[in-house]
Specification:
Number of helices: 11
Distance between the termini: 53 Å
CATH superfamily of the domain at 2-155 and 186-216 and 288-305: NAD(P)-binding Rossmann-like Domain
Order of helices and strands: EHEEHEHEEHEEHEHEHHHEHH
CATH architecture of the domain at 2-155 and 186-216 and 288-305: 3-Layer(aba) Sandwich
Strand content: 5-15%
Helix content: 40-55%
Shape: globular
Structural class: alpha/beta
Radius of gyration: 20 Å
CATH topology of the domain at 2-155 and 186-216 and 288-305: Rossmann fold
Number of strands: 11
Length: about 325
């Protein structure tokens, strides 16, 4: 099976294409705006918002996995362009990486039939728009399969392991009390890749549209995850933090983000800068939403990685990469 992986330079895209390359049934090709440093992976540079480029890359492909991240345009406009290009390239199967954010601020146990709500911000709105484009693609005879993961952790996860580990070590994060009582909806990166590969080989027929939540049933609440990760990486003692994290996110977060963006524009290293805590995370950490992943477990026969194993692999990766991060910081600060 010939498979194009869009966004193959990102966390999930990299893991997926490396896993596909080890199978005897997949012939994957990575695609992104950046070159690949892996000589064992076929690669093409593609701007996923440019239909002619994307249409050329899709020629002869049986399926495309859309792992594109980035800004709103990359997500929403890129989805529209992908659907249009796929229609012109023989209607390959589209598998799209969405997010739990499409459910908005709803709370409770949420299955895939819940209505989409773009009200949480630009990211959730862009992902909702993307799903609309792929639903339309299915109406026109294509196959559109959507995965909606919670928070993807495991080796390589800067969002849910790297920066959280650094916040814990710096004492900026800890037991948040009621502010951290929301469900984490953690899902290991390898489980996401397994789900994507199962959908590549599933028996869905032309015109099919289906969505699958991905979150390990034993995912803890955020407070428990913070404490468990802190213990695993040696970031103890874990302090009870209340209003401090709110002040950090709302007063320190925005200026830190601006400095980070300005530093990147100047092509300078951001290694010495502390990670800003986005205010949106405060809402997520307190949101009592629990993804129902029954469909993935039953229809895809997906067995989720046990929490203890996922935590161990996450901590090992953090400890290995943190040493390099600290060396980079020292080099930047050295005269």
């Amino acid at each position: 099976m010939k498979i194009l992986v869009l966004g193959a330079s990102g966390h999930i895209g990299q893991r997926l294409i490396s896993t596909l390359a080890e199978t005897d049934w997949a012939d994957p090709m990575g695609a992104s705006r950046h070159l690949s440093s892996n000589p064992n992976i076929r690669w093409c540079q593609v701007n996923s918002c440019q239909q002619p480029e994307l249409q050329t890359a899709l020629q002869g492909m049986d399926a495309v996995v859309n792992c594109v991240a980035g800004d709103r345009s990359s997500i929403a406009q890129g989805a529209r362009v992908l659907a249009q290009a796929a229609l012109q390239a023989g209607k390959p199967r589209i598998i799209h990486l969405s997010t739990q954010s499409v459910y908005g601020a709803v709370e409770g146990r949420i299955a895939e039939a819940a209505p989409l709500d773009p009200g949480l911000g630009w990211y959730g709105q862009a992902k909702c728009e993307a799903e609309v484009h792929f639903r339309h693609y299915a109406r026109l005879g294509g196959v559109s399969l959507i995965v909606r993961p919670g928070c993807v952790y495991g080796p390589g996860s800067q969002l849910w392991v790297g920066r959280i580990g650094r916040w814990l070590r710096a004492g900026r994060l800890g037991d948040l009390g009621v502010r951290g009582d929301g469900w984490s909806n953690l899902v290991h990166v390898d489980d996401v890749c397994t789900a994507l590969m199962k959908l590549l080989r599933s028996a869905h027929k032309p015109g099919a549209f289906a969505a699958f939540n991905l979150a390990a049933p034993e995912s803890p609440r955020w407070n428990a995850y913070f404490i468990d990760l802190a213990l695993a990486i040696g970031a103890t003692p874990v302090r009870r933090i209340g209003r401090q994290v709110w002040l950090d996110a709302h007063l320190l977060g925005p200026p830190l983000k601006l400095v980070q963006l300005a530093t990147k524009k100047l092509a300078q290293s951001t290694a010495a800068l502390p990670d800003p805590i986005p205010p949106a995370l405060l809402r997520l950490w307190s949101q009592h939403i629990q993804l129902d992943a029954s469909a993935a477990m039953q229809q895809l026969e997906l067995n989720f990685t046990p929490y203890a194993s996922g935590l161990e692999s996450s901590a090992q990766w953090f400890l290995q990469t943190q040493e390099r991060h600290e060396k980079s910081t020292q080099q930047v600060l050295s005269p």
